[in-house]
Each structure stands twice: as structure tokens, then as C-alpha cells.
Design goal:
This protein is α/β, with parallel strands linked by helices and 372 residues long. It has 13 helices and eleven strands. The strands form two sheets. A six-stranded parallel beta sheet has the order 8-7-6-9-10-11, sandwiched between helices. The protein has a five-stranded parallel beta sheet with strand order 3-2-1-4-5, covered by helices on one side.
């Protein structure tokens, strides 16, 4: 008997980074509710991230209306009001869900107290505690094949994201050049490797210095040439990513690429790269010190100039060494486990078929107790 579709309206962020950080919730819902059908609402920049979500009915691009009338919310309501939703998840904290027919709703609310990471903050909207769902983006085999073709060649890949949405968060481009040179040097941890440069179409001119200073034939400049999901697929193949606090940094971490995030006038407690293969690096000033000189975080000041190359190189080398040690330990554990499955006579022990209990997965997984 075919299960009835369970329609989910998922309202996520306008900005790319915030949308990535909450993306693990979509995967969790897709895994737990096999008959889920998603309508995802996102800003124009973030919307392409969700093109390949399983069970996707529609991506609604919501552009903020000018002025204080918040007409974009009324426009959204008009587009989704005709359906009865099984669940409405609103990570923007609007009142939209209150005026829709739905069985369950989960609306983000601003919390007080010490800052918490945005991944944890998003998970709490669904009343999830403990380990929150990690960011996750869906891609097709075709997208991965395209990325693999773009990266064809030998040697490890150092990926960099030298841009950001505000000049205050941009590390000087010449320091990216110096850092890449040290890491890709014959005595560096990525010796013989290649430099992958990523960014949007508006970033092409700013990376000229980095591209021209890099070894000819060892640079892959994809700035402005690939979409977000193709960049994500490329980063799944990279050995290391170094970049400013940006959406691209969060995409790199979500791809499982060892990620060094560069911070200054943004709070790594809330926006640090998420995952066990990441590290946030800053100069001598803490976030509060930047707020003291730029309270609205809007001035055209190069706040990142006090972060030295030596600090970033040291952090990158330490991260690479830690990831290599952890990977080696995991590989050794696999070998040991395989050895334990072999009999004293050297023959593998036959597996015994045991009928697994059938999992009953339905809408009730997301109960009123879970989402309020």
C-alpha cells in the first residue's frame, strides 16, 4: 500500500552560509520520513543549494521586499496557503506558519544567554538536543562527475576562498598567495599539489594577483565558472580549504574537506566551520574588540589585516597532521576488525542471516512533542 505523501514546508535562510548550516535538518527529515515531499523557501543566492533534495516538489525563491512592509512574507503566504502541510519548519521566525493549515509547526525563536553555534540553534527549532544534524547538501552523480573532470590531474588540492560578502571579513589577497606558496612548496605538507581558487562572478578581479602568482599549470581557477553545488562537489575532492568566514567556507566544511576558517569581525562561536575536520583561526583581537571599533559591522575597514600568514600556515599544518593521524587510526581499526572476523584457521567466518525487524517509519516520527 502506497503511503500518503507528507508535505513539508521548510523556510530556510537568505544567506548561503546560514542555509548550509541548517541543511542537516532537511536530511534528517528526509531520512526519517520516506514519504516526505519538500517545498523549500530560500533567498536567491541560497536557493540553488537545494536543487537535488530527494522528494523535492518545489524551491520558492523569496526576495526581500524593499521598505518596512515585509511584503515578501505576504507574497509567500499567497503561494503556499492552498495546501495543508504535514509540517511547517520556519527558521526565519516569521508568523507565516500561524496562518497556514498544518498538522505540526516548528518556528525558530531567538534564544538568550551565551552564543551557540547556528547548527545547534537551528536544531533546537525541532527540539533536538545532543548531536545536531550536520550540514549536508545533495548532489547528483552527474554533478560529481563534472567536478571530477574539472579537477583532473595529479597531486593534492589546496582550495581557497579569498572573498567574502563584506570587505571587513576579507583577508588580504597577498597573504593567501604567501600561504599557498608555503603549503604547496616542495617542503610543505601539500608538496606537488595544485591550487583551486573558488568564488563568485563578482570575485574574478580580486583573485587576479593570486592566480598570476601561482605556479603555471598547477592552478585551477574556477572563480565565477561553477555553481554552488559543483563547487561543493569539487571540495569533496580537495585536501584542504582555507577561506574567509563565508558561505563557501561552510560549503567546504559540509563537503568534509579539512577547513581552516579565517575570522575577525565575526563570531566563530556562532559561525565557525562545523565538523571534526575544521578549525577557526583569528588574529590577536577577539570578536568583541571588533564590535568596539565597528559597532554595526558595516564600515569599509580591512579588519583582517592583523591575522598573520604564520598563524594560518601553522593552523593548516596542524589540521592536516591531525586529520592524517585520525584517518590512519580509523584505517588501523578497520584492519583490526577484519582480522577479528577471521577464524583461527584463516578462513572467514560465515555471516549468519538474521531477519532484521521492519522499521516502521511514518509521520509520527515528527510528533507534537518533538516540534511543539
Amino acid at each position: 500500500m502506497t503511503q500518503r505523501a507528507f508535505p513539508i514546508l521548510f523556510i530556510t535562510a537568505t544567506r548561503i552560509g546560514d542555509a548550509v548550516l541548517s541543511s542537516g535538518l532537511i536530511k534528517m527529515l528526509a531520512d526519517q520520513i520516506p514519504n516526505a515531499r519538500f517545498t523549500i523557501v530560500a533567498g536567491p543566492l541560497a536557493a540553488p543549494l537545494f536543487a537535488h533534495v530527494p522528494g523535492l516538489d518545489r524551491v520558492i525563491v523569496m526576495e526581500k521586499a524593499k521598505g518596512k512592509g515585509k511584503g515578501h512574507w505576504f507574497k509567500l503566504w499567497r503561494q503556499v496557503r492552498h495546501k495543508k502541510w504535514g509540517l511547517v519548519v520556519d527558521l526565519r521566525g516569521s508568523a507565516t506558519a500561524l496562518f497556514l493549515r498544518r498538522d505540526k509547526r516548528a518556528i525558530w525563536k531567538k534564544s538568550s544567554g551565551e552564543p551557540v553555534h547556528k547548527v545547534i540553534d537551528a536544531a533546537r527549532t525541532l527540539k533536538l538536543e545532543g548531536d545536531p544534524p550536520a550540514p549536508y547538501l545533495y548532489i547528483t552523480p552527474e554533478v560529481q562527475a563534472l567536478a571530477d573532470g574539472l579537477l583532473a590531474g595529479d597531486g593534492p588540492i589546496l582550495a581557497v576562498g579569498p572573498a567574502a560578502n563584506w570587505i571587513g571579513k576579507v583577508w588580504p589577497i597577498e597573504r593567501f598567495t604567501q600561504t599557498a606558496a608555503q603549503l604547496l612548496d616542495k617542503d610543505g605538507p601539500l608538496a606537488g599539489g595544485r591550487l583551486l581558487i573558488l568564488g563568485g562572478p563578482e570575485d574574478t578581479r580580486m583573485v587576479d594577483e593570486l592566480r598570476m602568482a601561482s605556479a603555471r599549470g598547477r592552478t585551477i581557477d574556477l572563480t565565477g565558472k561553477v555553481d554552488l553545488l559543483t563547487a561543493y562537489a569539487c571540495l569533496k575532492r580537495a585536501s584542504l580549504f582555507i577561506g574567509n568566514d563565508s558561505g563557501l567556507m561552510h560549503i567546504a566544511a559540509a563537503a568534509g574537506c579539512p577547513t581552516v576558517g579565517l575570522f575577525g569581525p565575526s563570531d566563530e562561536r556562532r559561525y565557525g566551520p562545523w565538523g571534526d575536520k575544521t578549525v577557526a583561526v583569528r588574529g590577536p583581537r577577539g570578536f568583541d574588540q571588533f564590535l568596539a571599533v565597528d559597532p554595526d559591522l558595516s564600515q569599509a575597514i580591512r579588519h583582517m589585516s592583523d591575522l598573520p600568514v604564520t598563524t594560518v600556515v601553522k593552523a593548516a599544518k596542524a589540521l592536516l597532521a591531525r586529520v592524517a593521524a585520525e584517518d590512519a587510526a580509523k584505517a588501523a581499526a578497520v584492519v583490526e576488525a577484519e582480522a577479528e572476523e577471521t577464524s583461527p584457521w584463516g578462513e572467514p567466518i560465515e555471516d549468519v542471516d538474521v531477519e532484521a525487524p521492519k522499521a516502521e517509519v511514518a509521520e509520527e516520527r515528527v510528533s507534537e512533542r518533538d516540534v511543539g
